[in-house]
Amino acid sequence: MAVPAITAEWICTRCGATNRKLVPIRLTRAADRCVTCHAAHVVEADERPVRWRARLEE
Ligand SMILES: [Zn+2]
Known about the structure:
By secondary structure, this protein is mainly beta.
């Protein structure tokens, strides 16, 4: 059975590029890498469902 997923949209804190990642619906936190500059980020669900908060992974 397919796991329901949502598209998390996040803005790279290094280069400002918009990234999108398909995340299982129950997840509120995910690791992703910017498609443009490849900086590793941790993205977390915000109150708005689509736009997620992003910070550089340490
Ligand atoms: Zn970037």
